[in-house]
Every structure is written in structure tokens, then in C-alpha cells.
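re the bet — no i am not wrong, look at it urself. input seq straight from the record:
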Amino acid sequence: MPLMPGSSLAGRLRLHSGDLTRFQRTIDPLLVSVLFVLLLGEKAWNLPNLQLQPWIWVFACTAILLPRSGVYGSVRNTSLLLLARRVLSSWLLVCTAVLGLSFVSKTTTNFSRSEVGTWAVLSLLLLLLNHVGLRLLLRRHRSRGGNSRSVLYWGTAEGAVAFNSELLANAWMGLQLVAWFGPQAPQLGTNTSNLLSWGGGLSDMRRWLDCNAVDRIVFSHVTRNGVEMADVLKMFGDTCVPVIYAPHWAHPSMCFKVDYVGEQCCINLWGGERLVSDRQLKRCFDLLLSVAGLLLISPLLLAIAIAVRLSGPGSILFVQDRYGLDGRSFRIYKFRTMRVMEAGDTPGLRQASRDDPRVTAVGRVLRCWSLDELPQLFNVLRGEMSLVGPRPHAVEHNEQYRRQIPGYMQRHSFKPGITGLAQIEGWRGETSSLQSMVHRIEADLRYARDWSLKLDIKILLKTMLRLRSPNAY
């Protein structure tokens, strides 16, 4: 039987978890305002000449600015680290607004820096305790079976096993599979060791729902053994339970944004048009930093060029065809690091590997510190590349992996970059296995899905801190 709401504290939390967020929205401004008054005394509320009292600024700024940062979202799915960063950044914004108002009203001389600093730090700790601390307690409570949601799953045995594995691996979310049904029983040899026994088909599920309560119904798209999607939806629509579609074919990089063509619902899976303003913003950012970078490192470029020229016969630059935006070909520039100059579409083209005899002594140093990539700043100036984006692969490798990895070519919906999300997550250098390339492509597609200028800046900063990589050789 599914867990039912009761009179226990767990039951009340389960029923009123949404009210906890409303409570936090109210208590946060009160907490920081009361603390402000306690620490600063009459200076916080007894200004002369009918001036707007400072505690009111504190209350108003907190009440207005904190909700805009996303700290009052779902208590069930948000990363605690992301939540802590949101609390910190939004609190810094509140403090900046309060100081600005104090400066404009010429009341900054009424407060000592130590008092204001103490209030700011203690308020931040209170906010972190109220949000991160509370959610951490709730997650531990859910991991022990409290504050849970019961789930019924409709789909194939393979889909049910995969879905239940995610629930077990993320017990802190408080979701428990209490029954699963499908168009057919598990076939012989299917590993269902982590799964409840099969409950039957569509008619069996209807009878089960008549006698049992469940918090959510999750289903995947199946049309086997005469069971049509329309029949499944008709039955789910005849219940009062929230229904969630979890397609078994979903890929982690898909965006699943809903759009409409007239009254026809459409789901965007990959890609999507970016705003012209976003494209221009990214281009201006690229131009500004690449020009500044070339001016700053021009002596280094000259020194590397001389070292490459002295390292052996061959040109200073290595030029190769790569796929760029929308799959269009362009010529990428790198400092030569090998004794060979293979074209990008050479059949059987090998990636550089550890102790690769083709790599020169100078080239080994350049590759280790990613200095061979610096000429790509000229590709950025030409508009063929961006500072941040999916790394461009040789044409031969593109043709190889596009046949093996779903969504591979979707990475070309963005300009290729000198660095990218995959690189700072450790998926750079040689991809010795197909799974390594799968991880790289997943990171590239997540970048395309979640792009923002803030993300570009974050990737660039992390790249600067991780120039030397043990995977680059």
C-alpha cells in the first residue's frame, strides 16, 4: 500500500511542503530586520526628521530581491550547492541595495562598519540555515522514508527498472515506487531484482487504482500488445492523480521545452533558436576578449612560433578542416606539435595518445599547457569560432561518432570554442573509449541547452585555473 497522509509530523510536512516556502518568504525579511534592530539599536528605527527608517529599507530590499534569485523554488530537486550560491549572491545584492539607500539618504555616518558587517554576516548565516540547513534536514528525513511521495509506473520492465534505479540512487528526493504495470510481463532474463513484481496490464492497473491511493503516476510511451497510447491516456485522465510523462528514450542533453503550433502541442528536444541579442552579446564578448588577449600575449606567441620553427622541419602553424556552426567546414589554426601534418578527413585518423611518437618535444610542452590552441584566437576574430563552445573535432572523427552517438551533430548548433564545458569537466584530450566521447557530447549539449554569458565567464575562469591537464598529450 502507498504511504498515506496521516496525523504524524511527516504527514503534515508531506501535505504542506508548499506552505514551507511561503513561510520562508515571510520569515526571511523579518529575521534580517529584527537582527538589524537588535544589533544597531535605536539607530535602526529612530531617525529624526521623519526619515524613512533603516529597518524598513532592510525589510523591503530583502522581501523584493531575495525572491528574484530563485531561492524559493522547489524544496525537492534543487542542488544544495546551487541553492547556497543563490542565497549568497542574492544577499550580496540586498546588502549593496541597503548601502546604496544609506548613501543616498546620507545616513551612512550613523552606523559603524563593525556593526553593519556583523549584521551582514550573521544574516547570511541565518539565511543559509533557513534554506540550505532546512533542505538538508528534509533530504535526510526523506532518505529515511519520511515526507515521501508514492509513485505508480506504467511502462516496460526495462523502463521500470531504470526508473526505479534513479529513485533508489536519489532517495533524498523522497519518491517511492509502490507499483508498476505494463503491457506485458518481464521477459525471461530481464533483471528486475530492484523492482516490485509486475502488477499486470491496463485493466489490472485500473482495478489497482480503484482500491489504492498514489501521489503520482509516471508513464513512458508504449504501444505493445494492442495497448495504445490513447487508451492509457484516457484511463489516466479518469483519475485525480498528477500524471508525468517520462519517455524511456529521453537523453540527458534534451531540453524538453513546450511550444505550440496553433493548438498542436510540440516539444523541442534539441537546439532551438537563440535571440539575436544573445548572439550579438556573445560575439561582442568574444571580440573584446580575443583582441585584448592577442595584444597581451603577442610576445608569447612570437616566442612559441620561434620554438616551433626550431623544433624541426615543417610549418609553424598546423591548419586542418573542422566542422563549425551548422556543420559548415572551416580551417582551424594551431601551433604545430607533431612531425606529421594529416588532413582532417584522412581515413583512420588517429588521436594523439600518451607517449605518441608523432609529437615533438616542444609540442609535448605546448599540448600539456594547451598553448598550441592560442592561434585559434584568430579563428575567433574571423567569426569561425567562439572563446567558449564545443571543441571542434577532425572531420574523420565527426563522421565516425555521428553514427554512434545520438544527438552528436546537435553540438554544431553553437560555434565551436577554444574551451568548453566538457574540457573543464575533465573530458578533454584523447577519447580512448566510446563512453568517454559520450560524456564529452553530453557536456557539449548541456552547454548548448543552458548557455548564458555567466556560464561562459565561469568556463573561462575555470579554464585559466586548469591550463595544465594530465589528459592533454
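see?? Residues 276-310 form the longest helix (35 residues). told u. also The chain has a mean pLDDT of 82. so pay up
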